[in-house]
Write a structure and sequence with these properties.
Number of domains: 2
Bound molecules: 4-methylsulfanyl-2-ureido-butyric acid
Largest sheet: 6 strands, mixed
Radius of gyration: 20 Å
Number of strands: 14
CATH architecture of the largest domain: 4-Layer Sandwich
Structural class: alpha/beta
CATH topology of the largest domain: Nitrilase/N-carbamoyl-D-aminoacid amidohydrolase
Shape: globular
Distance between the termini: 50 Å
């Protein structure tokens, strides 16, 4: 048995008036409660330090810049690192990153119980659009405000296991999980901010919770990993963000589920050895995968017509004997 006690720290809304110091204080409060309940690791959502600013078309560069962290820890986040070290608890934190050479990423870090950063991931699948679209009730300008991540889907040996990180929209893509599964992931941490309303296709709105669960449950099962999905939830600046935070076992079963759209801690003590029975049987990749038949997965970004598909994978044109 390799036990790991995980606290998924769903956050309720963070509005523009809430400064970093207030938010960090809130995160520290949740951290203390999680520690008191025995947590080894507390997982905060995507962009956990500010409101979800991609909902606005922001023309003032100084205002836009105010949402990004230039250093981690910085002056306002240092107390979170200090408290983690004092309590001996690890954490995962999502934030907007601006690098020294001016690149902007939607980033998450993994911090060990010592307060040392042991993992960093920059969001690869950026949803939404790059230009202002005033017909929408609200914008989703991640394609304007971030570059696609350049660190790949890495895993980190930490907390007695192998930990992967993905961010929000990444959870909808099977490739995200499989690349980490192929590196032996055991726990995949996913922070998210998901508006319930989908402006181009409002008929999907009622399915937000269903889609949130099925993608993470499938990712967990198919890759023999625990998945910890953590939302920023509730009505934030007038936009309803879904909750639906959950901890999922490698069986694909949800073992802890948020019941509110506010600050809420979901606790679960998991046995990382539970990954083995799936990894050694139905998902023993080394025995059962057939990568020679997956050429289209990396050979094209979008759909192709059959003639182009054959160019990428000539097996698609073989005459059956
Ligand atoms: N933050 C994020 O990636 N949210 C998206 C919203 C839908 S796309 C406009 C998501 O996939 O949950």
């Amino acid at each position: 048995m390799r036990a790991l006690t995980i606290a998924a720290a769903q956050l309720g809304p963070i509005d523009r008036v809430h400064g970093r110091a207030d938010v960090v204080e809130r995160l520290i409060g949740l951290m203390r409660t999680a520690k008191a309940r025995g947590a080894d690791l507390i997982v905060y959502p995507e962009l956990a330090l500010t409101t979800f600013f991609p909902r606005w078309y922001i023309e003032d560069p100084a205002e836009l810049d105010s949402y990004y962290e230039r250093e981690m820890p910085g002056p306002e986040t240092a107390p979170l690192f200090a408290e983690a070290k004092r309590l001996s608890i690890g954490f995962h934190l999502g934030y907007a990153e601006k690098t020294a050479d001016g690149h902007r990423f939607n980033t998450a870090i993994l911090v060990e119980k010592t307060g040392a950063i042991v993992g960093k991931y920059r969001k690869i699948h950026l949803p939404g659009h790059a230009e202002n679209e005033p017909w929408r009730a609200f914008q989703h300008l991640e394609k304007r405000y971030f570059e696609p991540g350049n660190l790949g889907f890495r895993v980190f040996d930490a907390f007695g296991g192998r930990v992967g990180i993905a961010i929000c929209n990444d959870r909808r893509w099977p490739e995200t999980y499989r690349v980490m599964g192929l590196q032996g992931s055991e726990v995949i941490l996913i922070g998210f901010n998901t508006p319930v309303h989908n402006p181009p296709f409002p008929e999907h709105d009622r399915l937000s919770w269903h889609h949130n669960s099925i993608v993470m449950q499938a990712g967990a099962y198919q890759n023999a990993s625990f998945v910890v999905g953590v939302a920023k939830a509730g009505i934030e600046e007038g936009v309803h963000h879904m909750g639906g935070s959950q901890i999922i076992a490698p069986s694909g079963e949800t073992i802890a589920l948020a019941t509110t759209e506010a600050d809420e801690l979901l606790m679960s003590t998991v046995d990382l050895d539970q990954c083995r029975s799936y990894r050694e049987s139905v998902f023993a990749f080394e025995r059962h995968r057939e990568p020679d038949s997956y050429a289209l997965i990396t050979g094209t970004k979008g759909p192709v017509d059959p003639a182009r598909a054959i160019e990428i994978d000539p097996a698609l044109d073989l005459e059956p004997s």
